[in-house]
Each structure stands twice: as structure tokens, then as C-alpha cells.
Amino acid sequence: MNTTAINVAARLETVVGAARVNATSESCAKFAIDGVVPSAVARPASSAEVVEIVRFAKSEKLALIPCGHRTKLAIGMLPSRYDIALDMTALNQIAYYDPADLTLSVDAGMNLAELAEALAQQKQFLPLAVPFFEECTVGGTIASNIGSSLRPGYGSARDFLLGAEFVNGAATFTKSGGRVVKNVTGYDLHKLLIGSLGTLGAITRLNFRTFPLPEGYGHLVSTFSSVDSIVRFQAMVSKSPLAPSSFDILGPEAAQTVAEFKDDRDSPLPSWFTRGEWHVCVGFEGTETILRRYSSELVQYAQQCGASNYHLLEKSDNKSLGGALRELHNLLARSGPAATIFRINILPTFPPDVTNLRTLAQRFSLPCCVFANSSGPLYFALQPNDLDAKTIAALAQIASSVFEYAASKDGQASILFCPRELKEQVNVWGDPRSDAHLMRRVKNAFDPQNIFAPGRFVTAI
Amino acid sequence: MLTEGAAPKPLHRDVIRGLQNILGASMVLHRPEDLLLYEYDASIEKGRPGAVVFPATTEDVSRVVRLAAQHDIPVIGRGAGTGLSGGALARTGGIMIVFARMNRILELDLENQRAVVQPGVVNYELTRAVEHAGLYFAPDPSSWKSCTIGGNVAENAGGPHTLAYGVTTNHVTALEFVLPNGEICRVGSRHGDSVGYDLAGLFVGSEGTLALVTEITAKLLRKPESIKTLLAIFDRVDDASETVAEITARAITPAACEMLDGWTLRAVEDFIHAGFPLDSAAVLLIELEGLAEVVAAQVAAVEDVCREHHAREVRVARGEHERELLWKGRKNAFGALGRIAPSNYVLDGVIPRSKIPQALRYIQEIGERYNFKIGNIFHAGDGNLHPIVLFDPRDASQYQRAIEASAEIIRYCVEIGGALTGEHGVGMEKSELMPLLFSDDDFDLMRRTHDAFNPNSALNPGKMFPLNKGCGEITPRAQAAVRAVPL
Q1: What fold, for A329-423?
Q2: Chain A closest-CA separation from residue B402 CA (Å)
Q3: Would the CB atoms of A242 and B291 count as touching at under 8 Å?
Q4: Beta bridge partners of B339
Q5: pLDDT 10s digits, B396-451
Q6: What number does CATH give the domain B105-222?
């Protein structure tokens, strides 16, 4: 521990007490972001303590980064400064839950899986089927806006987040929205927190609308030999009265990764997947009657669109496949030393020229995989075997092509996960866009002294 | 004796001439008799602009805004003027930009279910333009046949079907707007997700206080396979409100769940002849949508709940005509009430759905205590109350008491975990009530966000933020609010 670290920790202790501060090198290392290690870890036990810590950081001009269970710290650029890791995991209770109103208020540091268990007791759930589900916190899920595979059926967090409480950069405790399902009182500031990566403040509590757990689940896994067939299948389902809860399009390599996923039964998924082929996994929910209708119509559509094979999953297999699809980013992010995942926001219709991305990777002889969530982003993951200068140079070239590809489709792309070495060459958020100055105005309003997660976000926010 | 700000501040003739140079003389109204029409919206507020202009393009808007900035004159955006919170009124005079000429649908991308529209497009016109493809625009305020999408965006408007589909913000993916310095900006993306902060999410519902929206990219939804509309008739209001709470608790999500109390529905029936039973205490208008099998199961479940709560009768609308008639009764109800009292004040509080029965009893008590008839016709399914206080605005003491009674109801909504407004916006109507919900620190952050885009309050001044904070001005509404703030 260097002297700066000792100083920060010692002074921080005078603010919130020694029990809340940890500055051992071992602890600090756990909160490192791309090798940048904080001087101290503060673990507040109340929103009032968060205010105290932020006030201290503000007066001392120290940089803070709010953290949950640290599963997604690799998202974003390297912090330009990082003094205190603000460990939010001690704020981990359900503050209010009215099952009869289907509304919930939960501390940001609560574990998502634990929350799901509590809601399941009331036969309810939050449609956040996100990677790192077992370990991550609610706050980190919202702050990173990581994709949920249930988005086609339930929308994204902005559709069911009702309000938030947070401590902003002026060291004041503030709230936005409320706990009711319909509310237009004041600015929707909580929407700005979604995906803000801790740059606007420390989220202490989040209010959600909850949903009834469906009576039953079903999945159709169908195999396609061409992307064109998938585009036709997607269009046919989208124009039908069916409203699937999930619609995952998997390139051959992504299907392979999903197939190899091991859940708690400790065995790989059964072989619904055909090696070397594209697959679509459609999830649906409801009573037996409804599941039957989905099954028969989806099979019919798949066949009409030239599916070479299909499987309707047995009850027990739905959970395993759902788990594998949910964890796909996680599996790919951990798949190698230089794993790089792009998130590409283009129009909902799956682009037939997605094969160009695979060609791009092949040009650099890098293994890759492509997958998409029908109404959500398209993901392009590269899985180089080595982390060397040549690989990084190749990834940098690929990045610039991907950013161009997205722009050519009136869309935007960013890099979700990648090695630090790539971040030293490429801005993971892509080139600044015409709204960059507006983003900075928001940042200045929330965090005038730039103490929250500096340098991590778009346009060096 | 309505509210402050009715007297217009005349604009200097140089300003009028400047506006005429930008837009042409016929596109600028400035004579008092022409401006009268623009001092109202559908609320009980008033505020007359110094000039009203009709730009045709985003560039026109930008030029008008720049001219206004040079002369330090406020600018107020306005769609069709159907708002219920005074959002589109010139509280402190200034130039009102009416978007009536910017009413083109610029692009329909049916494959991707997106539409790009100008702000003056009427809500219903967008649905009409895409219904041949089985699509529609989901937000459906009662005024949907006249209100504009620009106004919907400014106020984050709702409607009966927001229960299942969300308010306007859930259906907007990108915006173009003009800042007070005339700068034209674009935020969001056609997809909906964008890299960086969700600026479209911030600007929707900002009530014209951050920018003037000049183009909207909206999502279009697919029409459901099956729609069933039920009319459940009750002899006791409590039974109807407990039915709503139970439908929610059983996690049945109708597309819409509306309640009309007996007194209101009699007034409506007299006018619309929708087929509402004249001798009932309350009815629920419940719409279920989706796959035929889902709807059939939900109809059965809803019927069960209604019967368990002593519904006298549950009717399922036979055919489109009967369904449309029921909705006509619901959507024109406020108009129907206009025949009974000289004025009515529609509130917009929201409460947790589990607390609807107690809230309705409280509203009844307030009506008795203040000696007003208070009708209830509201979006029960999402707890969005619309108590309607009937009063005569020509009687100053009645006006004052109507405001006080309303403030008490809103205070109660907040006390039981609710909010001030579910879909009408804060505007000038509820700005003084904002401290019921927000602390000084909350206001500081909202103010800093406001100032980040509209630093001199050049756009829509006097809205959303309480006026009495710091400047000592106490309006009748502020007095009521101050009394209503819990000690």
C-alpha cells in the first residue's frame, strides 16, 4: 500500500468509520478495472453513508466508481482516475414490495438471483434475464444496461424501471420517478442512469414494475442453413399474432457455445444443435393451450421458411436452454485472453449481410461468433487465441469496420467487452456522435466536478 | 378570476416584423383578437402569448428561436392545445410556436415498425396511416383525434391502453429538436438503443422546458388477433374498485381497465347513449387483447373476479360497433360533463392499484367536506385517478375551494405512495404541488438538468418547477399546496 492509499483510507475512515473501509492491496485488487487499482474500498451500509463518502470524495477531489459484484467492470474505457471503489453490496434489501400492486423497490446492491427467489415466492419476476445472473447486482445490471434475452416479450429496463434513488456528484441524495406504474411527474432522470456506467452517481435504490411468472414455458429450436431463411422466419413471426418472449438468433459458433453450456445438472445441453448451422431459439410462455398453439404455429413457420430441423423442448430442458442463452455474453467474454464482443444497434430486422461480419473475422483468421436478440442488439464476438500486438492490431481494424458497418445502417455500435490493450488503441464507444456535447451537459449537471467514474464513458465522460 | 398572466405583454413591432420576415406575414398572429384563442388549453389555466407563429420546417423553428433569443423573449411550443395541465400556455407571454403546419408523416418503415413524423401530426392520423398494415401507434389519449404527437411527446401522454403498452416514452426511439440558441440536435436512434445516455428518454415528457421537438421517430405496434371488451356493472363503488385491485393482484393484465362511477356515467349516457346502465353505482370497462386463447382465458378470469365482487352483470361487447360505442362513451366523458357544470377540474393523481378502494372513499369524503360533486372516471388498471371537480369559476370562493379540495386529493395520493400526475404533465397546474413529492435536493438536480439545455428559461418558462420557491409569489394554488405539505 502506498502513502496515497494510506492517506485516502485513513481519511475515509474518519468519515464513515473503519468498519466501512478496506485498503489492503488484496481487497483493492479485487476492484481493479483493466489493471487500474483503487486506493481504498468503501462499503457504505446506508444511503446516508453513501452521501458522506461522496461528499468526502468531492471535497478531496477523489474519483469514485460504484461497484456491485464486479462482474461487468470490463465494460467501458479505462478510468482516467480511480481512488475509491464504492462497494454497494451492503445495500442489499428489498425496501418495499407490494405483490398486489406488482411494484417493487429494491436496494441497488441486492443480488439479482436472490431477488428473483424472493419474487418467485409471490409467483412474480423481473424480466431481466441477463448474463452473470447468479452473481450480479440489480444496480450493476441497470448501470451497465446489459442485454436481457427476454427483451422481445418484455422490453428493456427503461420499459419497467419506475424510479430510482441515487447520490449524484454534488453529494446530494436525489430521486426520480416513483413507485407507481404510471407517472409523468418531473423529468425522467432515472432513465439517464440506465447504462450510465456509474458516471452520473451511485444508484442506491431502484423501483420496478414486476410481472407474473408464466404458467409454463416452451422453446422451439430450429436449424437453418441460410441467413436469408432466418430473415424470412423472423418476418413471418413478427407479422403473426404470436408474441414470443425471446427470439435468439445464433450463428453456428454461438450455437456451439450454447450447446456446450453446462448448467447445474453438470452435463452439456442435449444436441438440439447441428454443428455448422444457424439456429433460432424462440421462447414462449403461457398455459398448456397457449403453449400448444405457439408450438404448432412456430413449427409451421419454420418449415415454411426452410428450416432443416427443429426441436420443441421438453419441460425440464427449457430452463437449461434459457440459462445458456442468458449467459452467452458471459461465456464468450471468458472464452479467451483477447475475447472481444461488439454490441451493434441496428434496425430490428436481422440484416442478411451479417455474414459480412464473419468474412471480416476470417480475413484476419480470427475465430468469431454472431448472435442476436430479435428486437435487441446484434452481437459480434471475436475469440482470438492469443493476446499479442498482431491480434490487437487486427481487432482495432475490425473495430473500425464494425463502427462503419453500424453507421451505414443508421445504427450505432460499441465494444461491450475487450482486453485493455485494445482500449488503449480504440474508443470502445465508437467515434463521438453529434449528440456528444449534449451528453457532456448531462454529465456536468449530475456530476459537476467529474468525480464519478471519470473517463469510462462516451466522449471521455 | 382564473389565474395570473392573462394580460399579454405586447411584443415590440421589430420583433413582429422579424417574425414576418422569417415566416411571411400570414404565418404570424399578433392582434389581441387573434391571440385570444391561444390563451387557453383544456385546463383551467390561462396565459396569452404576445405572438403566435406557424413554422413549416425545423429551420423555421430554429430561426424563430434565434430571433426570440436576441430579444430575450420566451418561446412556447404548442400542438393542438388539448393539454390538461397548462403546458402549452404562455405563462409569461412570449412567442408561441404552433406546429400545425409541421404535420407530415415523413417516413413509414413498416418492416421495422417505425414511423418518422413531424410534431404536428395528429395522434390518430398516424394510426390511420399504418392500419392497412395491421399496425398502430399505441398512446391513445382521450383527445387522440385532435391532439398532436409533438404534444404527446412533450407531456409524455398516456391513455386507456397504456396499462398494457406504456406511455409515450415507451414508443419513441429518436428525436430531433431545437435548443434555445437555435441549434438543431438529434438524439436516440431508430433502433431505440443508443450509445451513451438515454437522451430521448430525458426529453420525452420534459414539457417543452428543455427543447422544441421538431421530429419524432415512433414505434408502431401490431394489432392484436383478438379484442374483447367487457362492461361490468356494479351496485356499489367499493365492489368495482375492489374488483380492479383483485384483477391486478391476480396478475391479469388487461389492455385497458377503466372505471366510471354511476353519477358520471349517467351524465355520459344522457349525451352519448353508449348503453351504460343508468341505475348502477359504477361500471368497469375492461379490454382484453392478444392471442384468441389468451383472451378467452382472461375473459373467463375477469368474469370470475367481477362475480366474486358482486357484479350485477358482465356484458361482453358484441361486435365492433358496440365496442366503439362503449369507448366513445368513455373518451367523450369529460365533454359530457361540461353540460352539467360551468367548469370542471380534472385531476390526474396516481396511486398503487392495491389502494384504489380507500382512495375512492377518501375522494368521496373530500367532496362532502367541500360540498362539491366530484365524479370519477379513470384508468383504474394503472391506478391513474381522474377525479373531476365540478365548479363555477365565476364564483371566486368556489374556485378557491375547488383548488383546495384538489390539492387535498393529490396530497392523499402522494401520502399513500403515489404521484401528482400519471399522464397530463405538471405544467403550470401542478408546479406548486411538486414539493409534495420532491425535496430541495431533487429540485436542484432537476434545475441543473434544465439549465444544461435551457439556461435562461427561454423555453416554456414557469412550468414544472414551483414558482413560489425563492421568489415569494403565492398563487391560490400555491397557498393550497403549502397547506397540504405534511409538516
Answers
A1: Alpha-Beta Plaits (3.30.70)
A2: 21
A3: yes
A4: none
A5: 899 889 989 999 999 999 999 999 999 999 999 899 999 999 999 999 999 999 99
A6: 3.30.465.10
